[in-house]
Specification:
four-stranded antiparallel β-sheet; Chloramphenicol Acetyltransferase; alpha+beta
Length: 453
Amino acid sequence: MTGSGGDTRELSTGQAALWALYRLAPESPTSNVVTAVVAEPALDPDLLSDAVAALQQRHDLLRSRFVETGAGPVRLVRPPGPGGIEVVEVGDVDGADLTDLVRAVGARPLRLEQDGPLRVTVLRRGTDCVVVLVVHHIATDGLSQRIVWRDLGDAYGLLRSGVDVDWSPLTGYDEFVVRERELLAGPRRAELADHWARTCAGATAALLPTDRPRPAHRSYRGAAVARTLPDDLTRQVRATAVAAGVTPFTVLLGVFEALLHRYTGQDEFTIGCPASLRRGRALREVVGLLVNPIVLRSSFPPGTTFADAIASAARQVAGGTAHAAYPLSLVQAARPDRDPLVRVTFTLLARQSDDTLSDISHGFVGHRVRQLPLPYDEGQFDLAVTVYQGPDGALFAEFNYDVDLFDAGTVSGLLDRYLDLLGVACAEPGAVVAGVSLVDDAEQRLLLELGMS
């Protein structure tokens, strides 16, 4: 269908939920996915602009506008055209100052109605530059970001070599929307809805104690703390997974749920875990929102061991992923009290050897390119935990948090206790979760001193 300003396409259920969030807070950057690379020597801005045009030609979501109509929200696909980029001279900045500049670029809201979901900014220094991609979550997910960088680099390399980029547009996201609508109109919908109704009946989201009262309205401002897991702890996680017959992700998740149980005092609670909706070859190369958070519900009756928690996590993930096609927004809407089911999320991002965010330099021929580390999903939830797995097997944990609720020191301590519990769980899987101390030696001495004063 053709409408004013382009072809009119329907939104997926996940996109519609993000559009509703955007309409509530259009000035908020909470759904901005920000990634950046440093390139030396600096990229040619004209070639980069043409590469962006080729990227948008291939992935029509990136050249769409989103608007509200009488029948609901739709996206308008604009015809292919020149790629727009911003070039900003920033002088000789480095380190934290450079990161602050990049974060400022990412914090600017994307105007979905006027400009669409993509903004490319080049911060040019003396001999190099930083390319900052800001993509609204309504048009991307974790794997899509890898595809975007790969295609942008490949297009730039071809153009630099004097070769035209001749890519056919990928329309797979429209196929996904049609498939989703068919599922929700068919008999499987009742089966999926029943599963989530039973899973979430009487459920309460994990509620961490906060440093400040929860505000009436969220500002969606976030920050992050992070740690690289020690090599010996990473090896222990893998060994524990093998011994239990589960994945390392399951070990990491089960221990995280044990941490929440100890900190919240809740014996039963729910968290969210993003699940991929890429099914079949047609969606393999598509850029778009192709994840759905599934609800994981854990239970910690008296005597629960770490082995029990890990086994429970495995069952939660298996049941959730088997029913992941049913949108979380519909699960949430069916709740009588409408209290959020998800305030905390946990996910693992595995970076394989061909991951273009880990080794992005293959496309930008003639330039040395490295990724600039940036937090992800800041402020969208009370706490969003991501464990990154590098191609070398190393593990890196990042705790993104809502700054309206938590201080950095509180979240840093929470991350430290998580690593402590991981060590205990791997060394003694049969240890009772409730019996493990959450106080380190220094804190124990301080408490003893306070008790003696």
